Each structure stands twice: as C-alpha cells, then as structure tokens.
Amino acid sequence: MNLIQEFIDYKQSIGDRTALYKSVVDVFNIQRALYPGSHIDIMPSFVIPNVIYMDSFKGTIKFFKDMELIRQYVEKHKTYKGDSEIVFIAGDYNLKYDIDPVDLIISQYAGFVGQATKVYLKDGGILLCNDSHGDATLAYCDPDYEFVGVVNSSNVINTENLEQYFKFARSRAIDVDKVIQTKKGLKYKIKADNYIFRKKCS
Question: N or C: which end of the chain has fewer CB within 10 A?
Fold first, then answer.
C-alpha cells in the first residue's frame, strides 16, 4: 500500500486530530513535541514545527522508513512557516533516550506515557492525554503534574470548573493500584475526551 494512502486510511479510522493538536498549540505556544506510541499519526507535524515520534510497533517502524516522503506530505499540509523537523525513534518509550526537553508530550491510547516520559517534558511543559488506559488518572494523582484543562469533543479547551472531573458518582478515593493493574481508565461521573496537565517546576 502507498505510504500516504496508509496514513489517509488511518486518519479516517481514528478521526482527524489536527484540530485537537492545534487547539493545544495555540493556547500553550507549543513548538516542540514528543509523541510516544504514535503509531502513524503524523497530524501533530501539521501544526507543530518539531515533533519526535516514538513507537516499537513493526508497522510503524516500516512506515517511518520513508521519512522523505513523509516530510514532503507534511510540507503540503503544515500551517506554520519555516521547515518541519520530524524525528522517529524506533523503540519502547519505557526505555531511556537522549532527548532534549520538549514543550508537549502527546499520549493517545498508548498506555502510561505521561509517567514513563515526563523526564523529557520541560518544567511548565504540557501533557495532553486521554484516560483510555488510565494515563490521565495517573497524571491527576501525580504531584509532578498540575491539572489545568480539558478538551471537549469540539476541540475547545476549558480551564474552568475542573474540580468536577475525576470524581465518582459516590464519593470515594481513586484506586491508583487498580488503574496500574488493569491499564484502564475509571468510570468517573463526568469525563472529557482529553485532559491537559502542566509539569510543575522541579
């Protein structure tokens, strides 16, 4: 299958996330991002000049082998001026890498990305994640992160009334161990499509 067609088919299957990423970029002035467990979602490069993709899946590694074709496609679709910088790391995000601090870490359906890779996030940097595998819950319970916003289905960021999130219908504590064991998000009374956390200064 043609490389670009593979991406187009993938985008159709997961939905176009470009507006999601752009909303975060516009509010938090993102210039450099890390996307662990990215698969072939290259949509961040449409709105972010410098993106590091990371995945150990064989299909993803094969996809990123033709980096020049990917760059050409991104150049046609990017919304910023200047060149795009795209890097791919073929490996498990739980391992250690030599990566300079980034403004944003993207976590989409790939496990506990926010925990494993926060070392690469600069102080004040942003973690964008969902809670499909409990990554948002772990970030919410992590003293290294501050819960600063949610993104709704229309890709609008809301930074108000955040106290209503991560609450159960009946008051009880969050069982972090359960989340780690099951790798699933919990059934909260109110949920968001995506959550935004800021890394606190060390």
Answer: C
